[in-house]
Amino acid sequence: MTYVVALPCVDIKDRACIEECPVDCIYEGDRMLYIHPDECVDCGACEPVCPVEAIHYEDDLPEQWAGFTAANAEFFTELGSPGSAAKTERMPDPEFVARLPATELKG
After folding, report:
1. 15 burial class (0-12, 13-18, 19+ CB within 10 angstroms)?
2. What's the pLDDT tens digit per position in 69-100?
3. Are 74 and 14 spatial neighbours (Cβ–Cβ below 8 Å)?
4. What's 41's domain CATH number?
5. How many domains would you assign to the chain?
6. Which residues, other chains included, contact 94 with Cβ-Cβ below 8 Å and sequence gap of 6+?
7. For the whole model, what pTM was predicted?
């Protein structure tokens, strides 16, 4: 099990979770962030700092966002396990995320 980033992160990418992650396992896609399922140590440090509540433990992910579990896994299919998000450039999002309508920023 791992944590999954879901819809509220799309087009927001606040990055507070990246700063809080002790193992540097949160990677950046074009439109959202992704947590590496094999590198994550399930500490949960990322979840409470997310200002849009986009991070959920996989078993607690709301059903309407179930597609994000597969999108998260797909993101790492080509990337593999580099061992450090800081050493990795932004990657393209999986098709599931790339096809989502643009998120309107509030403010």
Report:
1. middle
2. 999 999 999 899 999 999 999 999 999 999 99
3. no
4. 3.30.70.20
5. 1
6. 29, 71, 74, 75
7. 0.93
